[in-house]
Design a protein that fits this description.
One of its GO terms (biological process) is carbohydrate metabolic process. It is a single chain. The protein is built from 20 helices and 13 strands. With 460 residues, the chain is of the alpha/beta class. Strand 12 and strand 13 form a beta hairpin. Helix 1 packs across helix 17, helix 4 runs antiparallel to helix 5 and helix 4 runs antiparallel to helix 20. The longest helix has 24 residues.
Length: 460
Amino acid sequence: MKLALLGGGGFRVPLVFRTLLADTSPGRVTELRLVDTDPARLRTMSSILETMSAGRADVPRILLFTDLREAVRGVDFVFSALRVGGTRGRALDEQIAQQVGLLGQETTGFGGISYALRGLPTALDIARTIAEVNPEAWLINFTNPAGIVTEASRAILGDRVIGICDSPIGLARRALGALESAGLAPAGTTAATGLGDSPVRLDYIGLNHLGWLQGLEVDGTDLMPALLARPDLLERTEEGRLFGADWVRTLGCLPNEYLHYYYFARETVAADADADLTRGRFLLGQQDAFFTEAAGSPERAAELWEATRRRREETYMATNREAAGGMERDEADLESGGYDKVALAIMHAIAHDRPAQLILNVANGSQVDFLPPDAVIEVPCTVDANGATAHQVSPVPVHGRGLVHTVKTVERTVIAAVQERSRDLAVEALALHPLIDGVGVARKALALAEDAFPELAYLR
């Protein structure tokens, strides 16, 4: 298989390559095309990948591209992991949000909408290019906000676009790990969950970064009631500690970690305000230092990358954990990745008709009765040579229906704003979001974003 990785100079590329190296199966990826607009970062990533593959046989051939059309020509799959505006853009979103008293997280609320407004034009250009140059290719989207980007891209490429995220898989694994530790799930259940042919059936539904795990069926038995009955086991999971066992039991299911921004909005905004650095500013400084040092010492690039990656994972959602009273991440969660294994499972499933069960971002169809059929939702699917087919799962929890409907309305309004180049629709999307309290602050935040980001000059 041939794979083009868009955002090939991005920091997390070695995670994808590590997974490709571990794959020795027939039909594995034999050519990896790294695609980026920054040649210097491409060279740094190439150095790291060369070090990772040193002394190994049958490694993927690595090619570097700055031209999108040439990069996607003739490949089987395109993996999109872009950040339009870079980490600096994320830091600016957080700064603007703090100026107007809003949450600045990059995929939720103001940050997510701002990110989508500047990133969607590029995502749509990518989809149009693939449709023109290589319409038989499959697009695996990891570019955030993943639900919005996947839905907009589907309007051009249809079912050949599949959105991925690692947070639902991490949630399910942590839940099963807690059950395994108490002998309530068979040993080894956790490891393969959500990545392919696992016998575990996950009852999960929602939108990207806004979903709920309602069931964990192992050998025909739903283990969720056993988990909810044990506060001590719930608090062995990151979500149990983040939300508190009492709140999880009130909900009657396990919420995706990103719902913390909704359920504990004031606490998180306050923790962000008190932090020495926002997440984006921390990552900006960290990655600038890494790329500078790695460029000067290419022989140490892989070592520097691993140390930087480790620190990045240790500080993931740090202000949320601070808002929850302070908690450290479990060692298992510091390994990072997950999306890379999902992407590999999708490629093998489609290219070699090797069915896999995965949680993905796909078209709703009739699954969620209050959303349009073409709205993208996040749900367990079976993937094979024909693409992804959603499983029938429990309805959206009653307590989450209004939130899902409102956020999906916001997402579709953002897409319309980009397609119509409409500032009024951009304001509407911001004002309707549950984490943005009013039209006035929406207008002010958008005006600040337009001043900060030349990418938003298309709005009229």
